[in-house]
Amino acid sequence: MTERALSFDAVADQYDEARPGYPPALFDAVEELTGRPLKGSRVIDVGAGTGIATRLLRARGALVTAVEPGPGMAARLHRAAPDVPLVRAVGDALPLADGCADLVTYAQSWHWTDPARSVPEALRVLRPGGALALWWNISDGDVPWIAAQDERVRHWAGDVHHGAHSATGRARYLPAAMDRAERRITWTRRVTLDTHLANLGSHSVFRTRGEQAAADFLANERTELLTHFPDGTVEEAYAVELTVTVRA
Question: CB within 8 A of 1, min separation 6: which ones?
Answer without folding.
Answer: 112
